[in-house]
Amino acid sequence: MKYKSAFLNEINSRGFIYQSSDIDELDLLMKKKSITAYIGFDITNDSLHIGSLVQLMLLNWLDHYEHKAIALVGGGTTLVGDPSGKDESRKIIQPKDIAKNISKIEKTFSKFINLNKNGKIINNNEWLSNLNYIDFLREVGSKITINKMLTFESIKNRLDREQPLTFLEFNYILLQSYDYYYLNKKYNCALQLGGSDQWGNIVNGIDLIRRLNNKKTYAITSPLITNSDGTKMGKTASGAIWLNEDKLSNFDFYQFWRNVNDFDIPKFLNLFTKLPFEEITKLSKLKGQEINEAKKILAFEVTKITRGEKQAQEAMEISNNIFTNDTLDDRIKSHNVKLNQIKDSSFNLIDAVEKLDLVESRSETKRLINSNGIKINDQTYNNKNFSLNEFSEFNEIKITVGKKRIGIIKIIK
Fold this sequence. Notes:
This protein is α/β, with parallel strands linked by helices. Helix content is about 45%, strand content about 15%.
């Protein structure tokens, strides 16, 4: 389907739209004028990971087509915890930790929206922390029925699986609805976007705005993005793919995209790059060894958008040095170890992987070794005692976990 407004036509063609409300009406509105739209982000960590990249790209496209994009950080709602997609209550996070997380995540938003022009970062703690609970229940709680809330997927799935749902989390729907109402009232926000698991919360906000502000607003959700094996995008066996550079190196971030499944290339090029459709079509037709060129372009483009062009260039150079030129690069992760520690086995492969931060846990490292998932100097390691003594003659030991993560142990003799 072709839409009249440039924004909707772009995101629909790229596969961002899963559900929507009154989209033809929204299309005419967005063709006629610039609107304000927002996406909410819970701040449960000091970095977002690639599970948030679809929503960040939507903010980027809003900004690109000169609509006003609001990244709403949940300084208030994170204190409660979104029950969506969870089988158990989220860990309660302290306000001081949320404030620290927000300060680090704000840098990510600045890469996707122009904060000096139409883009804004707003913290919902601004208004939620000042709410009078009795007034809130009278104004908002009286407009939302329990019957309707029980039909929302985020609530229904938890109850169907007989998992506990606290009253604290139940309130989350009211708070998110109130966010939309508040942003509509103060900033004339007319559109909320989010993941498909947020549909119930968003339409609840639309209904609240209609009742309290007597205004028409809209919703768009995006499909849950999974890898070709059906796993949820964002985390891997070796840990989350973080967007912040201090949580995951540019090289490791680049390598994740460099090694995605061939089947995912067209989808990821559309969602996570701003390449023109003609180029994506051409790259998507590559087969066999040639598809590696498409993966290199995907990795470079996503790293450029998320980390910056200089960082993408650096990651590509490191990758070329290691995999094309067969030379080690000083910019990849390294750790110095004394020779006697290698010889007396007080420092073994599990210690090395931990120091290089290549895998989340020591138990996972053992599992990878036992399943031939770790290489040393490009040879599969299968020594059950985890010793590195046989490599003590080298000055450097290259450790590779899967296809993506590489580190160097430098031996001090």
